[in-house]
């Protein structure tokens, strides 16, 4: 093959880097599936033990969402379905953090707050803000960016800025 037929060297390098990044993401998705499966199994075990039902529920919701996220990491990252399901994973993780916050707060109010409970409350609040509120913000942003071209098409005319 002559040098003129090969194209620029950076195209081959970019393709190789993209393929390696995709393989790395799939490996990370597999690792997340394995670790999350262990935690889901442990949370199911906790749900069957009488005193640990609430902790088992919180762990099941959070690590079930992590398991689902690992499955999504192995899919095509550019598909619309993966994007929507990823938003649902974020909402489920936010729900898990919200449940952890509520249950820890109720425990602190009932039995008195300790240093460990305050640390868990802080972590749960940060997790809820990051996962829950972040997923809702991403959902709203995605809805707004998708709506503009559709509305322009339905109106039958392209958007033109107004003159002042």
Explain this structure to me?
- The protein is extended and about 70 Å long.
- 84% of the residues lie in helices and 0% in strands.
- The N and C termini lie far apart (59 Å).
- It contains five helices and no strands.
- The model has no long low-confidence stretch (mean pLDDT 81).
Summarize the structure.
The protein has 5 helices and no strands.
Order of helices and strands: HHHHH
Roughly how many Å is the radius of gyration?
Answer: 23 Å
Unreliable runs: none
Main pleated-sheet profile: none
> Count of DSSP E strands?
0
Instruction: Report how far the terminal alpha carbons are from each other.
Output: 59 Å
Q: Helical segment tally?
A: 5
Q: Average pLDDT across residues?
A: 81
Key features?
0% strand; 5 helices; 164 residues; extended; mainly alpha; 84% helix
List the helices and strands and how they pair.
Layout: H1 3-6, H2 9-48, H3 53-73, H4 80-111, H5 115-155
Helix pairs in contact: 2-3, 3-4, 4-5
């Amino acid at each position: 093959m002559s040098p003129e037929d090969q194209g620029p060297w950076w195209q081959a390098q970019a393709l190789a880097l993209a393929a390696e990044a995709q393989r790395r993401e799939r490996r990370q998705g597999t690792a997340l599936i394995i670790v999350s499966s262990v935690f889901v199994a442990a949370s199911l075990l906790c749900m069957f033990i009488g005193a640990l039902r609430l902790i088992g529920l919180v762990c099941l919701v959070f690590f079930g969402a992590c398991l689902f996220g690992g499955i999504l990491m192995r899919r095509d990252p550019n598909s619309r379905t993966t994007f929507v399901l990823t938003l649902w994973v974020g909402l489920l993780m936010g729900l898990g953090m919200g449940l952890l916050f509520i249950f820890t707060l109720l425990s602190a109010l009932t039995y008195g707050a300790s240093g460990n409970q305050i640390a868990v409350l802080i972590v749960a609040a940060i997790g809820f803000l990051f996962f829950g509120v972040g997923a809702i913000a991403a959902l709203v942003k995605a809805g707004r960016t998708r709506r503009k071209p559709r509305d322009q098409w339905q109106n039958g005319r392209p958007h033109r800025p107004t003159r002042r």
